[in-house]
What we know:
21 helices, alpha+beta, 7-stranded beta/alpha barrel
Amino acid sequence: MSGQTRLILTLHNHQPIGNFDGVFEGAYVDSYAPFLDLLDEYPEIPVVIHNSGSLFEWLVQAHPEYVDRLRTFIARGQVEILGGPFYEPILACLPRRDRIGQIKAYKSFLEQTLGTSVRGMWVPERVWEQSFASDIAEAGIEYTLLDDTHFRNAGLNDDDLHGFYLTENDGRIVKIFAGSERLRYLIPYSHPHEIIQHCGHINERFHNPILVFGDDGEKFGVWPGSKDHVYRDGWLRRFFQTLRENQRWLKVTTMAEAVDHVSPLGRQYLPDASYREMTEWALPAEKQLHYKHQQKSLELLTDWPRIKPFYRAGFWRNFLVKYPESNEMYCRMLDVSRRVEAAESHPAMREEGHLLREARKLLYQAQCNCSYWHGAFGGLYLPHLRNAVYSRLIQADTLLEQFAGRTGNWVQLDADDYNGDARKELRIATDRMVGWLVPSKGGHLYEWDIRTIGVNLLATLNRRFEPYHDRIRDAARSGNVSDNGGGVDPNGAVRFKQPGLEHKLGYDHWPRKSLVDHFLQPGISFETFAGGQGHVGDFAEGVYQSSMRRSARVVEAKQWRDGKLGPYSIKLTKTVRATADNSGTFEIVYELEQLPAGMPIHFGVEFNFAAMPGGASDRYYYDHRGRTLGMLDSHLSLDPMDRIGLVDEWLGVDVALESTISAGMWAMPIQTVSQSESGFELVHQSCAVIPHWEFAAPADGKWSVTLTLSADTSAAQAKQLAEAKAPLRELQPVM
């Protein structure tokens, strides 16, 4: 052995904005607290810890004793704290101003809360682009940790990675460590002696090398089976004991100590990259399968080790292409970011600065990364995470309207490129709600924000093929699925959180938004439509033209299309009207023209309602008489009616859809099958409601109907008022 090997153990603890409080608490009890408990018994073993800002703010409130313990560990030099962007955003997802702002804000918060200097940072999901170097340096950070994959993609060999490098952008220098993928897979799954043996091989070949482990702290107690393995069965204790026994040549240390006492290996520029698995998930689903198939073929070649560093997958930003719903959140976030930036330079900032400070915090929270992509865990597929993003964006939007001086009842209609497609969308805003229309794609209503409850009722998600769906089908065919929903296939553990998931796999043929226009075969069944069949028109995703009419109290967005109904050319016009006097309602007028006289017509308009899950008795459909029709995960095919409602009592919202001409009503749940850390699961994404009309075309070829869409949140507002008054009652003396 030559010299001393440094080993840096870095834990990244994170819970996203919007995750359930019970999940936070469970992770604390199972992972964060017991790790410190055991670490306290080995004072000679230092670690590096990064807690995301969303988690750390929760810890400050829920478990201040954890924060006190961190201070103790820091004071005796056993813990180094890493910073990073405050609410764990992907840096590539942010404007530069927000990258720097988030990093600075969290650095300041940690230093004030913990009384320590924060010199390094965690890069969320290790998504790297070289321009980030100058932003990180400008935010006051000296060094960070990336994956060895990044360095291999730059042309370095494994033997070149046992230290840290300098990198720069615009002359601003940052030090970068290479986290070991090998150690990520060894810890905590292999025997401690195997890990020591790996470190020993490096020590024998290199002088004073640095080895870096950096991975999720949840591996130590939260991941399935890890609590028993790491704590009950003693893996972590054995690992710490083994490190203690080998401390003569293996120095467990921090990033700060290594930077202060070891020279950099040189200068290096890294290509756009993330950890290997992330780059694979970013590929389109079919390309992902092709990529893995080709990799298996290449691995059979004798020179695969030389090929491997140059065999690369996808690019993180393409999640915004792979999932249009992610792009909708992203573009919505950019719009709020631009408006916050513009408002902060306004002279009124001096008097109303508190509104903008709160708006910026909400913006930063809405940039939390987990909702914007999907890989091994739920991410984008989890409605409560998407809802949390939209909730903060809606609240920030409302604060910006207050800052602009909007009071009372008001209405506004604007046109701009709101979704980044180089075409203009229409934005209808009132004091109670905001809606976005996309003429270039079906004239859909693709976002509907209810300000009073901070909910986007169109935060929907389409059902689409994912590569792991083949694994679900294979497991079901092999019979390796037990009656209780768990199972194992020949390739490893498979867990079904609900039975029969293979029968729930289905894919959407159009966006699950609202104002989706369907011309259908006369007499088709509900089941045929639900299967995506029976269309005879080209309106569902066609390009519409648009115009606007605006006055102080009334606005109208008109969209029209000359399209095909079978072999016939017809015209469809839909006009969305909003008024200041009735600012919680959209009036939607449909006009059909040039219909072939006497021809049977079957026309339907699809609406989707998200954020209102099914499967609970307090979430249900009702008719015009107030009679309950079924829970929100029901499949309904109803005789003609002029009103249908959806209620979510927990959320406190009552959505009503009314028609001037009685319509048959179809309703069905849109449910995705996705993977999470605990297995494959069925997730309710939205309720699709389709009023549809069958009639013979009039002699003049014209037909029209008016729909009214409204959301009543008085129940939620009453609940908020009661909760706001509750603390005051508690302070009253008992007589």
